[in-house]
Amino acid sequence: MNNSYKFKVNRRSLYIFITILLLCVSSLSVSNFYNADSKDYEFRGLRSSYTEDYLNETIINGDFSPVEPWKSSTTGDLNDVSASTSSGQANYEISGEQKQFSVISGTPDGSNWTRVNNPEFPNLPDTSTINSGGCYVSHSWNELADQTPSVHWDRNLTMDESMSDYVITSASLTAVVNASANTNVECPGDSMTDYGTYDYVKFYVIISDLFKSKVYEVAYNQTVNIGQDSASNPHLMPDTYMINVSEQDLIFYLSSVLSTDNHNFTVTLGVRIWCEDNRLSDGDTWNYLYIKSCDLSFTYQKKINKFSTVSWHQNTGKVFSGNNLQITGGTLKFDYKINQLWSSSLSPNSEIRIFINNNSLLETVKLSGAGFSFNEAKIGGYDVRYLILKDVNTSISLQMFIADEFPLTDNFTISITNISLEISYLLFFPDPVDEPWIFSGLFIIASIATLVLAGILIAYIKVWRFPVPVRKVRKYRKTLSSDKTPGVGIVSQKTSFGKNYNSELKKTDKLLKGASMNGKILRDKLLDNKEGVLPK
């Protein structure tokens, strides 16, 4: 009896445990669904019990005292721009420079000039040399001789700097010549009938690259009336300047040859004689031809390449994060100055650019607006709220940007200090979010479903898993095992006969009310073919 009782108790405990387990699983499912959605519900309409305002200065050492954690970087030509620091400020430096070239000056010296043939007119005059008077030529021509003698003197020059980093801004050239010829040199005005171009001599100056792939004549003098018959014999041409190309053309030609070789170029002094055959047994006498002096000079300035940059940047280490944090504002301030006024003619578009979290501010600071003393770049500062990002390390960069290519003679220093980046934000402290009614309804439905499932499971375990006969036996066994024994009644013969008789009468009544067959009542069937005998 005790073992049977323990078995019943253990089985009931098992049923209770299964029911509780199902309820817990159902509750957790609904709760998880609610929690997953409640976050979105909370962010869609955050209801806070209160908020707190904060204002945070994110810049470290905005006055560069010390410089850390600020860092600098440059792009482009490092000879053009650089970064530096001084007491309480950071600097952007733009390096200008101006130099003068004037190696060729005065009377040509035989130690620096080399005589060479003119490749187009290779025959040399009778005499060609350099003496104390300069480049000297003399020549006598007769009927059968070559009519076009010529001579060159070359001088190769080397620049101290690579001219790829410089721009020639001014240039000048002067050359002086003189000559003497006999009156047998024909020129306009002489009495003759057979002439074309007459006799003449051409002095000239050429600049070229070392390999003579680019050759430019930059000055010349061609005689016209030397040797006229009306003049004294011999006829003299006094000191005369060569005719130069314009300064702009001279700058262009110099720049062109120095673009082929950034350090080297050649200057050539030349004399070419033309003796025209004007009569029978013609002869021409050139007593002397001098290039007395040559002066070439030019000024060149440092070329500042466009798109060069210098940046001062800092990773502040400040990260604004949290579901209950909202950034409400951001203001950037800094002071700047320049050591000398920046002319817009230098580079009107050069400026200081601002980057927050690697995103650029639309507003910029033109260098042409800087003064000699520190002033705010913008009164009240720049609104940078839309550049402040959550969940990232806030960074800032102030970049000087060279927008144009231009020559620069002086050194410029742009300085910045008192950099401040204030970020304001709100912290929300929300009330517990009320559970929407739909989740309560789902919880109730899930609970009812769990109870129904638990009831079905218990019914199956206790009853439905057995066949019907077994169920009856189990039910009868329960009555036997109970304290109250089943009642057993003995029915008398008379009572039993009466019950059977009444039962058969009910059947007879049903048949008598039924349909007829040929007008005859089926008595045989009612009386079972025996009168007075009741159906069995």
Q: How far do the termini sit from each other?
A: 48 Å
Average pLDDT for all residues: 81
Instruction: Give the percentage of residues in beta strands.
Output: 35-45%
Helix content: 10-25%
Q: What is the radius of gyration computed over CA atoms, rounded to a whole number of angstroms?
A: 59 Å
Task: Domain count, please report it.
Answer: 4
The description of the largest β-sheet is: 7 strands, antiparallel
Tally of strands:
26
The parts where pLDDT drops under 50 for at least 5 residues are 33-47, 517-522, 530-536
Structural class, from secondary structure content?
alpha+beta
The number of helical segments is: 6
In oligomeric terms, what are we looking at?
single chain
Describe the structure in your own words:
With 536 residues, the protein is of the alpha+beta class. It folds into 4 domains: 94 residues; 132 residues, Jelly Rolls; 198 residues, no CATH class; 34 residues, no CATH class. Helices cover 23% and strands 38% of the residues. The strands form 4 sheets. Strands 1, 3, 4, 18, 22, 23 and 26 form a 7-stranded antiparallel sheet that branches. Strands 5, 7, 8, 10, 13, 16 and 25 form a 7-stranded antiparallel sheet that branches. Strands 2, 17, 19, 20, 21 and 24 form a 6-stranded antiparallel sheet that branches. A hairpin with a 6-residue loop joins strand 11 and strand 12. Helix 1 packs antiparallel against helix 3. The C terminus is likely disordered.
